[in-house]
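Repro case for the chain-ordering regression, as requested:
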Amino acid sequence: MTATLPLLEVRGLRTELPARHGALNVPLNVLDGVSFSLGRGRILGLVGESGSGKSATAFSIMGLLDPPARVAGGSIRFAGRELAGLPERELRRLRGNRIAMIFQDPMMTLNPVLTIGAQIVETVLAHARVGRAEARRRARDALGRVGVPGPEERLDAHPHELSGGLRQRVAIAIALLHEPDLIIADEPTTALDATIQAQILREIRGLVEGGRTAVLWITHDLSVAEQLSDEIAVMYAGRIVEQAPAGELLSRPAHPYTAGLLASLPRGPRGSRLTPIPGLPPTLSGRPAGCAFRPRCAAAAPACAADPPWRGRMDGRGGVRCLTPGPEGSR
Amino acid sequence: MTGSMAGWLVRRSAQAALVVLAMTVIVFVGLHVAGNPVDILVPPEADAAERARIAASFGLDQPLWRQYLLFVARALQGDLGRSFIYNQPALALVVERLPATLELSLAALVLAAGLGIGLGLYAGLRPRAAAARLIMAGSVVGLSLPGFWVGLMLVIGFSVRLGWLPSSGRGETVAVLGVGWSFLTADGLAHLILPAANLALFKLALILRLTRAGVREVVHLDYVRFARARGLAPSRVVGVHILRAILIPIVTVIGLEFCSTVAFSMVTESIFAWPGMGRLMVESIHVLDRPVIVAYLVAVVLLFVAVNLLADILYRLLDPRVGTAGAGRGA
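-- result from build under test --
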């Protein structure tokens, strides 16, 4: 069933920053034809460096791009509905309700001057026709569900009175309030220490195993994506350059960029050398035509100056956007 | 917290007492240099004996330091002296004029805060809209035009040319709590509009610019984005999350501006013949009526202290993170 009708299907998504009154009078493509799909009960890890377009993908789906950035093309189908171009009113009904979001820094995502309770209650009231007392009861239950000790007292606390881990639990409790179909998590564990990070990853897994919810997990950390995801999509300069089931992608990377990311992770035996990718990712206005990874790629060929097509990986699992894909299974 | 709050209040009161003391010394010395009130009080044809009698009756024959000590001794018993001109208790004279000035200042402030915050929010949320640009251009004009000139133009425009609004006095008043108020009658309200608009213009521009700058800054913060990602209605995102965050500097400015409005409304009160404290002050300086000047300045200092206190209490209500550590702010 999930194979026939994915919960979220993004096709050729193009998000642009319109031309500013300057020398360079062309719109900049923040996202340049991003496609992926995600079924219920699945976790897709969206991996890339900062500036690769991971967060832009999330905000495009949510309709929360900062103007003047806008979705300029492509489609975002969510539960059979087209989100691109949907009026703000309709989007608002989905946000926090059918699609919930968890952000990177729990210190910054909760309003410092409002109590935890006020912020959960307002989220309940935004989507449910219930009274204040009932909303407060639901808020308390939501905190209890994510393992916040003493939920009743926490409702009256302000965010600065909670630890970073508790704050992120509050953010997760808010995301789960209306049992969303899709959770978009934008680096939610980056600011947390390792033990709390592991707990939260476990809880997210448990949630998805219920089979109703899908998670789009955005991270720069390939090892976090590996622990958590069913599938991983690697982004570079506004495009998905490789996508495959997590195991296959990590054991047999096809795109030179994926291989480079893996080589720069401390995964081998102790003392083995880490090899960083030479050079820096291109800036938004300095992306080369054709394959954007070309200047940093050891396998670059003259033909790479043309846009490489998306084609299936040799093992038949997933796809890659590269003319000279690496020897899959070489690791 | 309450203990340190009490200590803070005591410090505040001590500061205020010092300010009052310093202010009275300055007024005594300053007026002594400016001229001898006896010259104004005695008729030109009076002889030396008559002069000495009058001087003695006001205590003006004494050396200045003795006059000052006598004043302090009486002031500690709540007696700020009698007006040389009106032969009434000076404090009563000032207090009698206080409601008119308070009414005018409050009306100006409500106008400035209401329009300033409203227009500032709009300009901050829609920075590229034509109306927003117009508002910002207008605010520069509002900041740079001198108040007395605007006052005269208002009189010429709305009273002389158009004849829509009266330009002098308080109009019909209604006594509430033994004091006459203009804003309770249609005629009084009509009299209030021009002077209030005159006083409000500068503040309106200031609050507007402050609000807009705050909104531009806050609107990109994660917690505002998170509030939108939770599907909250725009009214709640703006009215609660954005407004609460930018309110502290606005409250500060409103507090300070209220004080300076009350203290320095003399220009506006003179133009519109508004029978408030400002006009009394101007008249008293002309005739070197020291007790009235001192009583007026004492009232103004106490008002400054009270409003600052109120603003500090408001900070604590607005932002739970403002603790006693931030309480050292001067009066």
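Ordering looks correct now. Residues 324-331 of chain B have pLDDT under 50 and may be disordered.
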